Amino acid sequence: QVQLVESGGGLVQAGGSLRLSCAASGRTFSSYNMGWFRQGQGKEREFVATISWHGVTTYYADSVKGRFTISRDNAKNTVYLQMNSLKPEDTAVYYCAARGKSGSYYNAFDYDYWGQGTQVTVSS
């Protein structure tokens, strides 16, 4: 069982930066691949970024590539999402999620545990 709690969301102007954190409970955090998803108002939840359990492999959605960076600190049971050059279209609730060794990194249904989400609002 893994419990996830996101933090770091807020209101920022376009071009600004935010750093999201996701703190995990449980001794098995380091065995999970971690992902960030987001859901804008009236939109479906979409994949943003993922990082492998050992932190070596990362993947990003095309819409955030070059602007967002996912990282993790297994000693602190925390995964991060550094978001730079934010755009109004990045406005959404951001969720972190944990996935076991199987499944697709971009498919929300393949993730086993989810946080409650943190709101990110980018003003123009």
3D structure, described in words:
The protein is mainly beta and 124 residues long. Helix content is 0%, strand content 49%. It contains no helices and eleven strands. It has strands at residues 3-7, 10-13, 18-25, 33-39, 46-51, 58-60, 68-73, 78-83, 92-99, 113-114, 118-123. β7 (68-73) and β8 (78-83) form a beta hairpin. The chain is globular. The N and C termini lie far apart (40 Å). The model has no long low-confidence stretch (mean pLDDT 96).
Key structural traits:
single chain, four-stranded antiparallel beta sheet, seven-stranded mixed beta sheet, globular, 124 residues, 49% strand, mainly beta, 0% helix
What are the SSEs and their pairings?
Blueprint: E1 3-7, E2 10-13, E3 18-25, E4 33-39, E5 46-51, E6 58-60, E7 68-73, E8 78-83, E9 92-99, E10 113-114, E11 118-123
Parallel strand pairs: 2-11
Antiparallel strand pairs: 1-3, 3-8, 4-5, 4-9, 5-6, 7-8, 9-10, 9-11
Average pLDDT, rounded to a whole number, is: 96
N-to-C span: 40 Å
Structural class: mainly beta
Question: Rounded to an integer, what's the Rg over CA atoms?
Answer: 13 Å
So what's the oligomer here? single chain
The 3D shape can be described as: globular
Percent of residues in helical segments? under 10%
Strand content: over 45%
Give the uncertain stretches in residue-range form.
none
Largest sheet, strands/sense/barrel: 7 strands, mixed
The count of DSSP E runs of length 2 or more, i.e. the number of strands, is: 11
Order of helices and strands: EEEEEEEEEEE
Q: So how many helices?
A: 0
